[in-house]
Design goal:
Elements (H helix, E strand, L loop, with lengths): L9 E3 L5 E9 L2 E4 L14 E3 L3 E5 L2 E4 L3 H7 L11
Parallel strand pairs: 1-6
Antiparallel strand pairs: 1-2, 2-3, 3-4, 5-6
Amino acid sequence: MSDKVKENMDVIGADGVHVGTVDRVEGNRIKLKKSDSFGHHEGHHHYIEMGFVAGVEGDKVRLSANADIAVTLEEEKSGRPVDL
């Protein structure tokens, strides 16, 4: 699945709501662009585990959780959860 995820793809929740934009894939995580951090902890990258990806549809990466849940699954570079 990670080979289908490309830079600048929209990352959306299962509900179709925008969560972020792909910067790149690092290991088994999607690195989101700093400038598009869904309003939380702007100025640095957040990551989403590939295990939360339900599929790639055109230029969108669809997650298995709705956007409001997906942002709680974001991680810091260290792998620690983002403090909301």
